[in-house]
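User: Here's a structure from my thesis project, written as structure tokens. My advisor, Dr. K., wants to see whether a designed sequence matches the one we expressed. Can you design one independently, without my sequence as a hint?
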């Protein structure tokens, strides 16, 4: 069951949802991290999030900060610390916009 706000967003702009769930050929750095040659942007974000949780990379004092290890740093532009709010935009950089 989808929240009402999400339902409205999907019906108002279905192309936005397609951008999240379309499979994309990944660059080599992300391909090594994810372990697949194709994945959606949403799928990639979920893989990164589960990696962060499994490896306890959230700052214990501030859960909005992620302390990146070497593997995560390779796909997040080499940043040693990232705010959770930055995460989607950093992942989005690996998914080029398709020409109209």
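Assistant: Designed independently from the structure alone:
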């Amino acid at each position: 069951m989808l929240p009402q706000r999400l339902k409205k967003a999907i019906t108002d702009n279905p192309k936005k949802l397609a951008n999240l769930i379309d499979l994309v050929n990944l660059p080599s750095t992300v391909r090594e991290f994810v372990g697949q040659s194709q994945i959606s942007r949403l799928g990639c974000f979920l893989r990164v999030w589960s990696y962060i949780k499994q490896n306890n990379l959230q700052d214990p004092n501030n859960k909005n900060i992620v302390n990146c290890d070497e593997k995560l740093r390779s796909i997040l532009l080499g940043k040693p610390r990232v705010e959770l709010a930055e995460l989607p935009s950093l992942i989005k950089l690996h998914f080029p916009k398709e020409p109209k």
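When you compare it with your expressed construct, this may help: The chain has a mean pLDDT of 79.
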